[in-house]
Amino acid sequence: MPVIPTSNFKSPFWLLNEHWQTITPALTRKPNKLNYTRERITTRDDDFLDLDFVYKNQDQIVILSHGLEGHSDKYYMRGMAQYFLARGWDTLSWNCRSCSQEINLQPKLYHHGATEDLEDVINYVSAKGYKTIVLIGFSLGGSLVVKYLGENNNKIPSEIAAGVAISIPCQLGSCAKELSMPWNKFYLKRFMKKLKHKIRQKAAQFPGMFDLKHMDAICSFFEFDSRFTAPMYGFKSAEDFYSYASAANYIEGIRTPTLLVSSLNDPMFPDDCYPFEAARNHTYFHLETPVSGGHMGYWWPGRKVSWIEHRAFQFIFDIIR
To answer: How many DSSP H helices and E strands does the chain contain?
Structure first.
């Protein structure tokens, strides 16, 4: 401990492999729409973030962070929010820069290591007077949670009781290579299409700042990050960016109870995305690795909720009760 030796999750037999387990919930789960109250905050660099709250007049709130090119209305965000709302929590589903259907103001967008925006969100929520705050992040959002908790262990607001990270790419460099493998082309093409669209929007917004020549030929994260991400954020190279932003590099510093759940058959993750050694002798960091589930799948047949919603709440409840 805190490597959790067994997990009680198992994908249904008819989801034959990791790809079906990843894609099926995304296509078929339809949690009800939420009646969000949107609040816009100004970031420290004079940009904005759109925050979608559901208030139930509670003194505890869960802050939800979405995955790459996600947003507050994604099925997994709505599902987790609904699970906590039904159990007496307020919820906040925040949108990373440019992810709330309105392009942001600054040249910079967001990335796996850009925890300053999460910190601004947490400070805004903390000022509302909640007694208990918990953080839950999906994929990229989970990377932000782990990095934030690990790098800020001495200045985290005392109200933050726990964190949960779901299916996070702990080592970005090796994940970039894994996504270039033939069996992952489906996911890579979807990500590249969305990210290239964002860069074109930024190029129109800031003429002369971005070189779009041969952009259509880019067909890997390494190429994209070398060409755009690294220079946009002041890194020397894609490798420099991956080193800074990889969540695995911040696990040791975590001093808040934190659960990472990643299935062993996640199609996007190589072996080094499962930080067993970091968790094995850690007091605060817990690692659970279901045998199946794909990437953020965790389909629970016959139930209206996902297993990961139940598991996240169970972990948090055990911490704060």
So the answer is: 11, 8
CA R_g for the chain: 19
Q: What does the pLDDT profile of the chain (321 residues) look like in tens digits?
A: 588 888 889 898 888 899 999 999 888 888 889 999 999 999 999 999 999 999 999 999 999 999 999 999 999 999 999 999 999 999 999 999 999 999 999 999 999 999 999 999 999 999 999 999 999 999 999 999 999 999 987 889 999 999 999 999 999 999 999 999 999 999 999 999 999 999 999 999 999 888 898 898 999 999 999 999 999 999 999 999 999 999 999 999 999 999 999 999 999 999 999 999 999 999 999 999 999 999 999 988 778 889 999 999 999 999 988
Backbone angles phi, psi at 319, to 5 degrees: -75, -45
Question: Is 20 in contact with 295 (CB distance < 8 Å)?
Answer: no
Distance CA 99, CA 82 (A): 21
Q: Is the pTM of this model over 0.90?
A: yes
In this structure, are residues 80 and 309 in contact, taking their beta carbons and an 8 Å threshold? yes
> Cα(303)–Cα(185) distance, rounded to whole angstroms?
31
- Antiparallel, parallel or unpaired: β 90-95 and 48-54: antiparallel
**Cis? peptide before 2, omega within 30° of 0:** yes
What residues pair up with 316 in beta bridges, in sequence order? none
> Looking at the chain, how many residues does it have?
321
CA distances from residue 97 to 71, 105, 134, 198 in whole angstroms, order as listed: 10, 9, 21, 11
